[in-house]
Amino acid sequence: MTVKLTIAIPTHNRAALVRDTLASVSALAIPADVEADCLVIDNASTDNTAAVVDDFARSAALPMRRVLEPRPGSSFARNRAVDETTSDYIFFIDDDAVAERDWAADLLDDMRRRDLDAACGMVLPRWSSTPPKWLGPSLWVKLAVHDSRAIESAPVSSAERLDNYFSANVGFKRSAFERFGKFREDLGVVGGNPISGEDTELFARILARGGTIGFVPSAIVNHMIPPERMTRAYLRRKSFAFGMGTAFAGLQNHNRLDKLVRNGVRMAAAAVRGDSERTLYHELECANFFGYWRGRLIAR
After folding, report:
1. Do residues 284 and 138 make contact, with C-beta atoms less than 8 angstroms apart?
2. Are 199 and 77 in contact (CB under 8 A)?
3. Within its chain, how far is the Cα of 266 from the centroid?
C-alpha cells in the first residue's frame, strides 16, 4: 500500500538559505512504497523567495510546488500546509535547516512502526561561524538545537519529553490534526516578534488528549545558527519571549518564586567560579521567569 508524504517548508524572506533546504529535500532517500512531494509555503516574503523556489522546482527530484500564505506568522504558514495537502503524513523542516539523506525515511519508519501521532528528530547546530566559548552545550536548547552527545549517551526514552521536541524537525500523521487540532494562530513567531510556543502547545495538547509523540535520533537535520543568534542579548530576548509564549499558551511550568531565587543563587555561584556558560544559563532561566509573569499579566 502506497503511503503519501508531504514535506512542508514554511519560509519567510530566506531566499539565500532556502535553496540549501530545497536541495537537501530533493536529495532525500524516499522508500519505494512512499509517494512524496514538497510543499513550500511562502509566508508573505518580500525578497526573491518565489523566484528561487519556482526555479528550483523545475528540476527537483520530487514534485515541488509553492503556495503563498499572505498572513505573516509561523502558525499561519504551518496550518496552510496542513490545509493544502491530503497526504497521510506531513513533515516540517525549517527554511534554514538541511536534512540528511535518510531523514524522512527514518522519521517515517519510526512513526509507522510505533504508530505515533507525531515524532521529532535530532536538530544539530550548523554554526555559520565558530561559536563563542561561553555558548556551550547546556545553552543549545535555547537555540532549539540538540546536544547529540548527551542524547546518544542516555537511554532513548529519556529524550522523549516535551522540552526536547523542536518543530524544525517534526512529522505528523494527518489524522493527528483531525483529532487534536492544528497550530494555534494566536501563538507563533511573526516577523521580528520572537514570541513562540505554538509548537510546544500543540505537542502538549496531543499528549494531554491521549496522543503519542516520539523522538527519533537518527532522523537528523542541521539547523543554521547565524552570528546574530550567538549573542547574549539574543538569548536573553528569546528566553523572555519563550516565557511569555508559555504564559499565553497556558502551559504547565515551574516559574514560581523559588525557581527565581534558586537560579539567582546558582547564577552568582557560577559567576564566582568563572563559569560563563552556566552563569548565562541561569540568567536565561531568570529571563524566562520574568517573561512568563509578564505574559500572565498581559493575558489577564
Report:
1. no
2. no
3. 29
CA distances from 129 to 16, 17, 184 (A): 17, 15, 34
Over the Cα atoms of the chain, what is R_g?
A: 19
Q: Are 21 and 94 in contact (CB under 8 A)?
A: yes
For the chain, helix, strand, coil in percent to 5 are: 50, 20, 30
φ/ψ (deg, to 5) at 150: -65, -40
From first to last of its 300 residues, the chain has per-residue pLDDT tens of 899 999 999 999 999 999 999 999 999 999 999 999 999 999 999 999 999 999 999 999 999 999 999 999 999 999 999 999 999 999 999 999 999 999 999 999 999 999 999 999 999 999 999 999 999 999 999 999 999 999 988 887 788 998 899 999 999 999 999 999 999 998 877 665 556 788 999 999 999 999 999 999 999 999 999 999 999 999 999 999 888 888 887 777 777 888 899 999 999 999 999 999 999 999 999 999 999 899 888 877
Strands ordered across the beta sheet of 34-43: 64-69, 34-43, 3-11, 89-93, 169-173, 118-127, 213-225, 97-99
Cα 149 vs. chain centroid, distance in angstroms?
A: 19
Instruction: Kindly state the cell numbers that stand for 246.
Output: 508559555
Say which residues have a Cβ less than 8 Å from residue 213's Cβ, sequence separation at least 6: 116, 117, 118, 119, 120, 160, 165, 203, 206, 207
Beta bridge partners of 215: 120
| CA 27 – CA 35 distance, rounded (Å) | 14
Helix segments in 70-188, DSSP class H: 74-84, 103-114, 148-152, 174-180
Among candidates 159, 107, 141, 146, which has minimal Cα distance to 284? 141
What distance, in Å, lies between the first and last C-alpha atoms of the chain? 51
Give the Å distances, CA to CA, from 286 to 187, 239, 247: 22, 9, 15
